[in-house]
Amino acid sequence: MFGLLTQAQTLQLAVVLPLIGGVAVLWLGERNRNLRETASLVTAALEFALVASLTGSVMHGERPSVELFEMMPGLTITLTVEPLGMLFALIASGLWIVNTVYSIGYMRKNNEQNQTRFYICFTIAISSAVGIAFAGNLLTLFVFYEILTISTYPLVTHSGKIEAIRGGRVYLGILMSTSIGFLLLAVLWTYNATGTLDFTAGGILGDRIQGPEVAALMFLYMFGIGKAALMPIHHWLPAAMVAPTPVSALLHAVAVVKAGVFSVVKVIVYIFGLDMLVTSDWDNWLLYIAGFTIISASVVALRQDNLKRRLAYSTVSQLGYVIMAAAILAPLSIIGAAMHIVAHAFGKITLFFAAGAIYTASKKTMVSQLDGIGRRMPFTMAAFAIGALSMIGLPPTVGFVSKWYIVGGALEMESYFAVAVIVASTLLNASYFLPIIYAAFFKHEKPREGNDTHPTHDNHGEAPVAMVLALCVTAFGTLALFFMPEAPLALSRALVGG
Amino acid sequence: MIDVPASDPWLILLVVVPLLAAPLCVLLRGPAGAWSVATAVSWGVLGIAVKLLGDVLERGTLRYRIGGWDAPWGIEYLLDPVGAFVVVIVAAIGAVVLPYAKSSVEKEVRSDRIYLFYAMVLLCLSGLLGIAVTGDAFNLFVFLEVSSLSSYVLISLGRDRRALTAAFRYLIMGTLGATFYIIGVGLMYQMTGTLNIQDLTTIIPAVADTRTVLAALAFLTVGISLKLALFPLHLWLPNAYTFAPSAVTVFLSATATKVSAYVLLRIFFTVFGQVDLFAHFPLQPVLMAMALAAMFLASLTAIWQQNVKRMLAYSSVAQIGYTVLGISLATEAGLSGAIIHLFNHALMKGAAFMAIGAVVYATGAVTLDRLAGMGKRMPFTMAAFVVAGLGLIGMPLTAGFISKWQLITAALESGYWPLAVLILLSSLLAVIYVWRVVEAAYLRPVPANEAWAATDRVPVGMQVPMWVLAGASVYFGTDASFTLELAHTAARALMGGY
Q1: Quick check: is B308 in a domain?
Q2: How many Å apart are CA A434 and CA A428, to the nearest integer?
Q3: What is the structure's pLDDT at B313?
Q4: Contact between residue A175 and residue A236 where contact means Cβ atoms under 8 Å apart
Q5: Is the pTM of this model over 0.90?
Q6: Is residue B222 part of a domain?
Q7: Which of A33, A132, B288, B410 has its CA 20 to 30 A from that of B221?
Q8: pLDDT of residue A371
Q9: Residue contact A188–B395, C-beta within 8 A
Q10: What is the DSSP string of B88-144?
């Protein structure tokens, strides 16, 4: 970066820098809160600059790589940048900046406790997300995957209340049991079968496993990567809704679920290999499970009155898109999967930012309370509308671009099931998002009910400026990427060698 | 065998130095003097152990003939890679525990008995090291008794009166074990006329099909399994670990069971090394069943414990199951898994017991309800506990991960894939019992009646050893090449005879 660092050093630093920031945060502590927040912001900005500085060479076909250390003979912790990882790292580090700005507003306005711990855990989470993105082999991916789980646990249980403890149990219970029980087994099986764990273009499994074993291994991977929230192991996502909103944004947009679907795509493309899966009939179930997840999560979302829970189920459904797109196995749909990781990140972070802004300004959490709120919080609700359009997949938002590619891939492979799922879920998405927008802008605010004595329910404006700024930025990104999707598209195309 | 003329005096010094230092402690009487002697000796012993390991790796098996009498008439000491590895584990733990013991023992043992404590620790150390270096089956019995008798005394030094019954119970069970062992040795002597282990190796194949040898094997296996606390012969262990002074618990949990496992390895793969033991006798299914029962039942029991020391004790029983599972595979990979787990578990469990010992020292709390909020009151100590706990779960970047990786690889190599699944499932149980402590310490508020004053007033002498072990668990989890290769060398040596 900037000619000062070699690519190898840049890579190493990209994983270590957030941790350095974390140490600075710890050292500054609550007494120097302004300096502490500055440290967070500066770290985030530097991190993005570091990651971004690698983009050019990756687009030109280079694959910068560095071995961090050798854990066991022949098994190294290695960072290697390939296009999909580049894309994920850019999103994670880029949105971290915005999320930090938002967090500062949210945590201060809501007088949250233990803010230092909060920011430190954030830095560890980002470091491990970047580690996952740049993982050069499955062992590296697994190591950072587990660190991400553990570092986000204190964030999910941040409030320390009994429901937070319960939510934390579900969160940790599902993510750890799937990753230890299934994913680690899958990794060991792969290692036992092939003698390598490196992500290799075209896959490493080849004909080493055949027939029903493909289905079994695929099962272990897909349900082992619990962060991808394939039904029926999605419960941790709604359970984690007890966390403060910036954490929800981290989980849903920046790091956690993205790490999940990223790993899914990575395993399908670089471990199994598309060619191998196209010729095997034993992986078709994935398409149907993903389709089922998309539809049923949308139906559940339709029935949620709690805004954050509705968004959580929407996430489950949207993650299903990525997995289904990958399972279609067409190059076009793989591009769509990669693009959808981007699209969902921008759209969902906007929606969560808006939900958190609504809560901070008015303490409202239910969809049914939002009548007329658009007039009090015009920026927030406009951003919300843009995010919602992207979820539905309508132009002029980036959600349309990714859906376009996914449908294109589905048609190419003549997978009419996938097409039908996309059509149906678009309708469902519209029916749980559009009423919110309608109510916010066109309905009149309900008069205060007799037992509702909350001071801010009908007496508020926008949330603090840091929060509004953050959600406007991400909403703008959602729009901008529709008009200028070249950079992420180029990386996505490079993923399938197009 | 080529006669190595110069026998290595360091072998005998390893045993004699602590043996002679023990009465010196009694003569000195003063706690400070006794501690200084014991600590100096333990460090010296560690120095010798490390030197011996280096020599063994460089020159192969080392020998020493006591009194200049040649084997098989005289007693011969010999040290191969397995023995050297165990010697280093025992010596290292001894060297780390003694600095820790100073403050801990002052608080937990009556002051007029402290010199006895150090004398007994030295005797125990000498006995354990003796087991690992002797090449004579009867001499091994002597050392077994030296270490056992001193550990009965050590356990009974606990302030809690239940320590006496715990020690008595251990005395009964331990004596049974030792008696079984000596009966086994007697039966072998009857058939072979020798007590020298190398001699036994060569003579046993001729008489392997006799009932007497079968009975000898059974007596030896059961006797050592009692010492090893292999499920269901573990009943003495939980109380002994719970009520013994903290330093004793650390020392015994990290060394005594390890040495017993070493004896088991010696019997199976050296004494019966020329017999295809596992084909001859139905040993494999029995060992496997016991190991699995230990892994699951002991872990389940651990989940229900209120007393954290007892919880960790049951966890030890479960971890012994992993070791025995590795032994039961009877392949080079399986044995290396078992051997490396001896080392890794010593680090993790030592650190965990030290952390809880520090909590006992500062606050007297050892039950879960009194640990509430301890993460705030004793942040460093609880952090060390979490690091150790993550190791017990088998999280990547801790030593526990390496053990599990190696054991599962071994299971898959032998084609026992259900074992791989079971190993992973049982580590999920570890998640539960470790996380009960984490939840209590970090997510429950400090009880109103607990004084805040007692925050981390743990002497440096206790902090440093605790972090040395916790740090070693992380270090040997990130860079396990050395330990793994050592374990492989040791396993090869075992499979190939002395």
Answers
A1: yes
A2: 10
A3: 94
A4: yes
A5: yes
A6: no
A7: B410
A8: 86
A9: no
A10: HHHHHHHHHHHHHHHHHHHHHS-GGGHHHHHHHHHHHHHHHHHHHHB-BHHHHHHHH
In the predicted structure, residue B260 carries a pLDDT above the cut 80: yes
Q: Which residue of B402, B422, B435 to mutate against A (max A Cβ within 10 Å)?
A: B435
Q: Answer yes or no: is pLDDT of B3 > 60.
A: no
Q: What is the pLDDT of residue B475?
A: 94
pLDDT along chain A (498 residues), means of 10: 76 90 88 86 92 88 88 90 92 91 86 84 92 94 94 89 89 92 93 90 84 89 92 89 86 86 92 86 87 94 90 92 92 92 93 90 87 88 93 91 92 91 93 91 78 65 86 92 89 80
Chain B residues whose CB is inside 8 A of the A172 CB are 431, 435
Spatial CA neighbour of B178 closest among B160, B151, B156: B151
Residues 6+ away with beta carbon under 8 Å from A9: none
Contact A180 B394 (CB under 8 A): yes
**Which H/E stretch holds residue B396?**
none
Whether residue B361 is contained in a domain is answered as: yes
**CA-to-CA separations, A313 to A133, A158, B117, B168, in angstroms, rounded:** 25, 22, 61, 59
Predicted-complex ipTM score: 0.90
Which residues from B are below 8 Å from A181, CB to CB? 421, 424-425, 428
Q: How confident is the model at residue B1 (pLDDT cuts 50, 70, 90)?
A: very low
Residue B247 structure tokens: 């330093």
DSSP state of B66: G
Q: Which residues of A touch B402 (CB under 8 A)?
A: 71-72
Q: Other C-beta atoms within 10 Å of B414: how many?
A: 15
Number of domains in chain B: 1
> Residue B479 is nearest to which of A71, A150, A188, comparing CB atoms?
A71
Other Cβ atoms less than 10 A from the Cβ of B160: the count is 13
Nearest to A283 by CA among A334, A214, A348: A214
Residue B421 forms contact with A (CB below 8 Å) = yes
pLDDT tens-digit series, residues A317-352: 999 999 999 999 988 999 999 999 999 999 999 999
Give the domain extent around B442: 282-492
The answer to whether residue B157 sits within a structural domain is no
Q: Residue B428: list chain A partners with CB under 8 A.
A: 176-177, 180-181
Q: Calculate how close chain B gets to A116, using CA atoms only, in Å.
A: 14
Q: Cα separation of A388 and A369, whole Å?
A: 18
Q: What is the pLDDT of residues A427-485, one digit of tens each?
A: 999 999 999 999 999 888 877 666 666 666 667 778 888 889 999 999 999 999 999 88
| Residue A286: C-alpha distances to residues A275, A420, B216 (Å) | 16, 16, 56
Cβ separation B435–A172 shorter than 8 A: yes
Check CB contact of B418 with chain A, cutoff 8 Å. no
